[in-house]
Amino acid sequence: MKANLSPHVTEVLREMCRRVDTDFDSVDFKADNWYLEHQWTQAEEKDFTRWLARYLYDNREARDEMMRSPGRKNLARARKAAGEFVWNYGWKVER
Q1: Integer Cα distance of 36 and 39 in angstroms
Q2: Where are the alpha helices (DSSP H) in 20-89?
Q3: Which of 25, 39, 50, 90 has the least C-beta neighbours within 10 A?
């Protein structure tokens, strides 16, 4: 695990890297705009967002770690949190 990254954030970032065929350890997540280094399609972004929503929904520790106010298990809230994560940290979308 990279220093200062929590276990669930690490898992999510590993999955992001896997989806663009890049090595997790080669990405400097402390660099400004690290998320602009790679691209994915809109379909790939949508699929990742679904994966992340399900990951948050199914994993209480991940919800506690990654959601502002995790509350009870709720798929709509997990989808919203996944969308916010991708909006802020997702790879840029191919045009």
Answers
A1: 7
A2: 42-58, 60-66, 75-89
A3: 25
- How many domains, the chain? 1
Tell me whether residue 29 is in a domain: yes
Decide if 30 is inside a domain: yes
Q: Would 77 be classed as within a structural domain?
A: yes
Q: What is the mean pLDDT of each run of 10 residues along the chain (95 residues)?
A: 82 97 95 95 98 96 88 90 96 93
**Domain region containing 16:** 7-93
State both tokens at 32: 């400004």
**Whole-structure pTM value:** 0.91
* Cβ-contact 57, 38 below 8 angstroms: no
CB atoms within 10 A of CB 62: 22
Q: Bridge partners of 40?
A: 93
